[in-house]
Structures are given as structure tokens and as C-alpha cells.
Amino acid sequence: MANTVNQANTRTASARATAKKRRNQLPFAILLLIGIIIFGFVLNGIGVKLPIYWIFGISFGIVLQKSRFCFTASLRDPVLTGSTSLTKAVLIAFAIASVGFAAIQYSAVQAGNPVPGFVSPAGWHTAIGALLFGIGMVIAGGCASGTLMRVGEGFMMQWLSLIFFVVGSLWGAHDFSWWKATFMTNAPAVHFPSLIGWPAAIFGQLILLGALYLIADWYGNRRSSQNS
Amino acid sequence: MADYRLDCMGEACPVPLLKTQKKLSGLNIGDVLIVEIDHSCAMKNVPEWARKEGHNVDIEETGDGEWEIYIEKTK
Q: Residue ranges of the domains in chain A?
């Protein structure tokens, strides 16, 4: 109760002659929706699968924007604010994705096909690359999906991030054969289900993610009880 | 009991949060800090941090994609 009273005081105490005139965004939204549908039909003329990619891409964007989901914040906020809510969200997303990928891969392997998806060589280069990417994404204010989402939101600083993200990616792709030959050929590509069996791989991964979730939950609560 | 404004327009996450933390530590108890932001990510982590610290927090959307976060320092 005392909290709500204080909240009211916070409101009245501050000068708030700052409300700006808002433009009605509904006409833009309707125009955009019509544009999305028309472009979907155009894509359908080029390839049957393209409209599916189109709708999935737009749906991902909406979910990312509305949920304020951010891979950068999931790893940065525990250090910066002690909040682990996004960390837990990412772990849940990984768990759901693991089950989905396992289903896709299992059915493909049962049918006698090679394992779908990327099974990349893992080694020291993975850890070093991850560290570099982590430093970059905190400075740029977003990872790949986060940057794209904020570009769409109209946050102009990240338009700059996107340009250099594209430049960096192209540069990396250009020299990829050298990186691969120098660092990646000796590293083993491990597909856990093929190595230790499907049940052990899937449940092992889920148990690991569950353990990380518990640690994140404990860490988030610990930080908040320390401060209050 | 004074009002302070902190302009974080155009600043990407986590800069608004760091600026808020720095600014708020220099204020007196009872002062209100108004943080102006236009980055949706800061809209989440600045209030979350301030609430965790135990301050009174209020958010208002002043324009399309522009917010003001009111933080009353309580300790």
C-alpha cells in the first residue's frame, strides 16, 4: 500500500509538460499489413517456400520486439543489474529448441538421411570467437536478431551497427576458407546423439539447461535480496 | 526534493542504465530523476534495476517510442 502512495507522489512531484503530440500509427499499420500480404503473393510467384520464410521472419520480428527478448541482455544483465529474467527466458528457448531439433534430426536419421542442420567443428576457435562476438554485441547494443529488430523499430544508431555488421560478415565470409584451413580442420565435429545415443544426448542437454536455469534463478533472487 | 533530467535519447543499451546508475548515486534521498530514453531495451532494464535497488519507479510513454522513467531515490 505504502508503495502505491509513493508511486503517486513520484508522479505528481515531477514536472510533466513533456507529452508530445502523437501521430496515429494505425494507417501506417494497415498499409504495412497490405504491403506484407502483397509481397507474400509476389514471393509465391518466385518460389513456393518463400512466403513461408517471409511469414516466419515477420512473426519472429514481432515476438522479438514485443517480448523485448534480447540475447545480449540475457548475458549482460546478470553482471550489470543482477537480473536474470532474460537469461532464464533464453534457457527455456534453448530447451524448447533442443526438443524440436532433436525431433527433426531423429526423424531424418531414422529415414537414413544425413543429420540436418549445422554440425560444426568445435574447439578453441569457438570460445575465442564467442568472446569476440560477446564484446562486439555489448558495444553495438545488440546481437544479430536484436540489431535487426531495433533497425525495424527505427533506432538509428543501430542502422549504423547493421551496416558494419554486414561489412564484418562479408569480410568474414570472404576469408572463411583461410580461417577454416588454419583453425577448424583439425577440430572434431561432434554430434552428441551419434556419439552417446539419443536419450543420453537429449536428456543430458535438458538436465544441463535445467541446472543452468536453477543457478540463474538463484543468482537473480540472491542479488535482489542483497539490495533490499 | 529536486527534479533532475537525464537525456539518454539515441543511446543504446546499456549506456542509459550506466548513466542512470552514475547520476542516481550523486543525488539526495527524495530527489526525482527523470530519464529520457528512446531505446526499447533500456525501457526494460533501467526500471528493473531501479526497482531492484528499492527506488520508486514510474514509466510514461511521452511519444511514439520515447519514454520517460521517473525514479524517486529512496535510499
A: 1-67
Residues A82-99, mean pLDDT to the nearest whole number: 90
**Integer Cα distance of A116 and A220 in angstroms:** 36
CA A114, chain centre distance (Å): 27
Chain B residue with CA closest to A66: the answer is B40
- pLDDT value, residue A21: 63
A155 and B70 within 8 Å at the Cβ level: the answer is no
Chain B neighbors of A7, CB-CB under 8 A: 56-58
Residue B56 has its nearest CB partner, among A10, A83, A228, at A10
Q: Inter-chain contact B72–A13, Cβ cutoff 8 Å? A: yes
Using CB atoms, pick whichever of B3, B40, B49 lies closest to residue A81.
B49
- Grouping H, G, I as helix, E, B as strand and the rest as coil, residue B63 is strand
Q: Which of A1-10, A92-101, B5-14 has the lowest mean pLDDT?
A: A1-10
- Contacts of residue B13, Cβ cutoff 8 Å, sequence gap at least 6: A70, A72, A73, A141, A142, B39, B41, B42, B45
Say which residues have a Cβ less than 8 Å from residue A193's Cβ, sequence separation at least 6: A102, A105, A106, A109, A201, A202
